Amino acid sequence: MRKGFLLSIISLLILCCGCNKESSISPRTASDKKVSQELDQYIPEIGKRGGTLTLSTVSDPKSFNPVVAKETSTTEITNLIFEGLTRMDGVNLEVKPNLSRSWDISEDGLIFTFRLRDDVLWQDGKKFNSDDVIFTFNDLIFNPAIPSSSRDIFTIDGKKFKVEKTGEYEVRFTLPKKFAPFLMSMSQEILPKHILEKPLKEGRFNYAWGIDAPINEISGTGPFKLAKYLPGERVILERNPLYWKRDSSGNSLPYIGRIVYLIVQNQDTAFLKFKEGEIDYYGMRGEDYPALKPLEARHNFTVFNTGPAFGENFLVFNQNSGVNPRTNNNFVKPEKLDWFRNKKFRQAVSCAIDKASIINIVLNGLGIPQYSSMSPASGFFYNPDVVKYEYNIEKARTILKEEGFVIRDGFLEDAKGRRVEFNLYTNSESTERIKIAQIIRKDLENLGMRVNFMPLEFNLLVSKLDSTYDWDAIVLGLTGGIEPHFGANVWLSSGHLHLWYPRQPKPSTAWEARMDQIFVQGVQEFDRNKRKTLYDEWQVLVSENLPLIYTALPLSIFAVRNKFGNLYPTSYGGAFHNLEEIYIKP
Amino acid sequence: MNRETSNQSTETRDKKIKTPFSIAMARLRKHRPAMAGFRVLVVLYSLAVFADFIAPYGFDNEKRENAYLPPTKVHLFYSGKLSKPFVYLCKQEFDHFYRRIYKEDKSSPYTIKFFCRGDSYKILGIFKARVHLFGVKEPARIYLFGADSRGRDLFSRILHGSRVSLSIGIIGVGVSFILGMFLGGIAGYFGGKIDNIIMRLCEVVMMVPSFYLMLTLRAAFPSNLTSLQVYLLIVVILSFIGWAGLARVVRGMSLSLKEKEFVQAARACGISHIGIITKHILPNLFSYISAALALSIPGYIIGESALSLLGLGIQDPYASWGNLLSDAMAISEIQRHPWVLIPGIFIFFAVAAFNVLGDGLRDAFDPHKTMSK
Amino acid sequence: MKAYIIRRLLISLPLLLAISFITFLFIQIAPGDYFDTLRLNPQISEETIKLYESQYRFNEPVLIQYFWWLKNLLKFDLGYSFTQKNAVSSVIKSRLANTLILSLASLIFTWLIAIPLGIYCAVKQYRWPDKIFSGLSFFGLSIPSFFLAIILLYLASITGILPLGGMRSANFEGLSWAGKILDILKHLIIPTVVVSLAAIASLQRIMRANTLEVLRQRYILTARAKGLPETRVLYKHVLRNALNPLVTIFGYHLSDILSGAALTEIICNWPGLGSVMLTAVRSQDMFLVMGTMLVGALLLILSNLLADILLAWLDPRIRYE
């Protein structure tokens, strides 16, 4: 999750990251494969080369450029093509070398020197070296003309890292301040200088490697390379024969010959295709569980349940008090802004949302209510003791009454006599999210609010969220992770994905200012427990001020066909965290 | 019954001069499929008009515990004895596979009551009423066609949705017929330049595949409209697509009528253009029009359903047949809850009824032609 | 003949122009200012916006804008799709062939089934095969294509015989040359049936009526009186004369097939223009919407032209005027 949080199209992710979760917080069925406790002893077998892994995705990638990517449909694919200096071990959650062989850390924890691998080739055959690393950070991520979510993470208190070349295969990072998750964040994808320098100079970088780019121009160092893209149909990745990693007997990895991503219209198609045996992996919705679980033995697949997911669904109100520079109109109408920026109003809304129904109806009982801004799956930094505005319609009404809202002719009016009416959007690709939004709509109607609900296309939603700001309320999801700082692009008031009021010049409320402080302090604190205290406070702040009103967390349940060797699903890495070592059994 | 009507008609025949209209009507009455279609339509439209009364629940009346409850079983025997029809209260729980299991609570029966009190509604938008044709006492519920994800009654929603689906057909056809008749009549009657311009305009509309045109028109309007705006928008879109075909045919017919003696006579009498068009030409097109009307309504019903099905039309919580059918877009949803297909059956019946009625009208008014396109 | 074709072509041109103008007007009435939205998008550089400003002149009056748009159109530049992050022409190019495959398959299927069926029913007039097929054709005319598609996909999901939508199987790349064709054909079945059913039903009715009409003609009586075998009468005289009027409605049918194909594509997940159109409409990607609609209209105009030429070629009575 080094890119910062991304907007997700569906709530369950395929290759999402996670961590060891707290035990027994979630409803579980008895017989699901859980994550084995002996995974620490995972020793990969020597595999067999070849075969195809077929996956599905509900949305076309929007580009093949991991730096400008904002959505999971893109990163799902670029994660296989590109690599960073380090990687997170999916089994024991340690930071391991990847494109670097090793590193030194100075006493004060501010200077990191990485020794890079000298045997890495780009997929077009050129050698990888320190110039590429320098280019990726100095020219791309820290380039203000490029809208990159990563920049929010690599900027501490407004100051950038200094990245220098100290040798052909050595780079030095000098940090302005201490940065606790630095090594973890070095999994940031490195891009090839020799290919991207030209478009960058011509000012075309933001489009370079778009989906119409020539396939052979897209070149990473990862285990797979792009082979074919048929829009609306499939993305095909092939084994990278030049990949540097070897197995214990010196055979080059990966084993799997080809990965096919079928682009399906919706999750239902993916479900049917999995049932038919056409695809090998399926991240289930709650409603699929009763259909698939009984077939497990007969259809030769295994259902894994790794506990609460990271992907979340929340309701967010637009608190943007800015003015459109072109039209001089407010982004949000003043009366709506009065409501949405009112903490009590949001608390009342939270009390009105029937989370139990969402879990029962939408998640088919396979979920837990969410109050904290971190998923229980995040483990160490998860704070269960936050303020909980639980479902209580009477309490919601009382709060609104105290704020001067009254019911007149069946409609809620604020203290100035303005009828509470606004639009609610969600993305149309996810039936789950549509159902959640419909439940929320009805719940708010019970308070007397008039809510016009409309599902919109994901792209349109994203452009509303990050450029035109013409929306009132949205039900959406973000990916989550184990490291709170990687959500800096969401939680810093200057963040690009600070959904309710992005890119603020200075924090508009006291609690946002405090959150900024927490994130600046938290990232500089090396003591894990002290960090936790800070992030606990942040989670309490969020739960009290409710910029994002969380609903329910689904359980991460997925089914994998029984044909893979070296398959060791973990709750952090999902099924394919060790993809290059996985092979297809003959 | 039949004999009576035929007796009556022979009587009237003796007294009155046979008008072409009465001949056609008599012929239509003998057209069995057309009459069946007509009866189906009468039933569907009365269901729509009295939806508030017939439906046991309001369109957005939900009971979340009853998610996906299958059609309620109506029982006749209570502890072995015949009794008034009744239902049991249903409870849902999950089994170990997380399947939804529904259990009837056999301890107490809930008799189906007729003319009982339920959700309030307004008759003609004025009088408040609470009487429903039938219903059961809470907490039990009666779901004739099963429930949707939030425990709303599909039967009630279909009835409420029929108001949208069936009225859009009539209103849409009305608007485009007025447009088409007017423009087509003018074009055919005046001929020359006006004719040319109008006909080119028709061609432009007809030369775009209608589904593409429909989507393009939808895209030209904002996506966040209120339900009433959406409704009107759909009418506008469908009428815009529909008028051209009609205008062309009306033009052709008025071209030929123009040369008929009675029109020439009217012209000689100095009657104004508008007068001739409205009084002499249009009434003579009536036979064609009534058939074409019936035959083109299905296009509007299907158009609305398609838009709503794709999420571009009527939005939840409001119901229309297309919108209700959108649940069936997910095949696994049909596997789990087959009753989501029922709205499609309603669409089929409405369309089929209009089709047979149209066929019958055409045959009735035009006995020489067995087939025309 | 040649002059006739050229004349027909010339007539089509202003039609296309008018359609393009109307499409263009749609962007103008589209919500908000589309280009304002672009300008506010930080992912789009100042230079690109300048480039588009010079290309589309969106500060000028509508007519001048239209002129510039048309100029780009002549260069096959339909603009840029900001949601697909690709040129509209290349988005359409990647899907057009698929739509054509489906439309053509439906067209062939329709004519192959409807013509013999129509003749058969006419020959067996009022006997039970005629009644059965009349009932079936009525059913075909009345069932909405989307409902039929849903039902067929559902049946396919139960039986597992046919694929559930899409155009290719996951293992398509590994198949042999013949296997690939077979695979696509298998995926074609459901959408083709859905698109064709209504067309078959109406064509079959028309063919039946035409055949009955021809059968009543005197020359048929003569032919029979001459002692020609019934099959000869049917193939030599009836078929040709009954078929002629059908060519005129060929273009009309194509419009239905193209429209039907678009909706069916969406439901059957067939990667054609219809599904592009839907995404474009949902995300209000106006250039893409316009481009797709224009291409749809172009297809229809071309096929009508084809039908006219075919008719002129088949029926010498048509004067080339």
Task: Explain the layout of strands and helices.
The complex is a heterotrimer of chains A (586), B (373) and C (321).
Chain A: E1 52-57, H1 72-81, E2 86-88, E3 95-97, E4 100-105, E5 111-116, H2 130-141, H3 150-153, E6 162-167, E7 170-174, H4 182-185, H5 193-201, E8 224-230, E9 234-239, E10 258-263, H6 267-276, E11 281-283, H7 289-292, E12 301-308, E13 314-317, H8 334-340, H9 343-352, H10 355-362, E14 367-369, H11 393-402, E15 406-408, E16 411-413, E17 421-427, H12 431-445, E18 450-456, H13 458-468, E19 473-476, H14 488-491, H15 510-524, H16 528-545, E20 548-550, E21 552-561, E22 564-565, E23 583-584
Parallel strand pairs in A: 1-10, 17-18, 17-19
Antiparallel strand pairs in A: 2-3, 4-5, 5-7, 6-7, 8-9, 9-10, 11-21, 12-21, 13-19, 13-20, 14-21, 15-16, 22-23
Helix pairs in contact in A: 2-5, 9-11, 10-12, 15-16
Chain B: H1 2-15, H2 20-30, H3 32-49, H4 51-54, E1 75-78, E2 81-94, E3 100-111, E4 113-123, E5 127-135, H5 154-190, H6 192-206, H7 210-219, H8 227-258, H9 261-268, H10 273-309, H11 321-325, H12 331-336, H13 342-365
Antiparallel strand pairs in B: 1-2, 2-3, 4-5
Chain C: H1 2-29, H2 34-40, H3 46-56, H4 62-74, E1 80-81, E2 86-87, H5 88-123, H6 128-142, H7 145-159, H8 177-215, H9 218-225, H10 230-248, H11 250-268, H12 273-282, H13 286-314
Antiparallel strand pairs in C: 1-2
Describe the structure.
The complex is a heterotrimer of chains A (586), B (373) and C (321). Chain A is an alpha+beta fold. Chain A has 16 helices and 23 strands. Chain A has helices at 72-81, 130-141, 150-153, 182-185, 193-201, 267-276, 289-292, 334-340, 343-352, 355-362, 393-402, 431-445, 458-468, 488-491, 510-524, 528-545, and strands at 52-57, 86-88, 95-97, 100-105, 111-116, 162-167, 170-174, 224-230, 234-239, 258-263, 281-283, 301-308, 314-317, 367-369, 406-408, 411-413, 421-427, 450-456, 473-476, 548-550, 552-561, 564-565, 583-584. In chain A, strand 6 and strand 7 form a beta hairpin. In chain A, helix 10 (355-362) runs antiparallel to helix 12 (431-445). Mean pLDDT of chain A is 84; it is low at 11-30. Chain B is built from 13 helices and 5 strands. The radius of gyration of chain B is 26 Å and the shape is elongated. Chain B has 373 residues and is of the alpha+beta class. Mean pLDDT of chain B is 83; it is low at 1-14 and 369-373. Chain B is 59% helix and 13% strand. In chain B, the strands form 2 sheets. A 3-stranded antiparallel beta sheet of chain B has the order 1-2-3, with no helix packed on it. Chain C is mainly alpha-helical. In chain C, a hairpin with a 4-residue loop joins strand 1 and strand 2 (86-87). Chain C has a two-stranded antiparallel sheet with strand order 1-2. Chains A and B meet through helix 6, helix 7, helix 10, helix 12 and strand 18 of A and helix 12 of B.
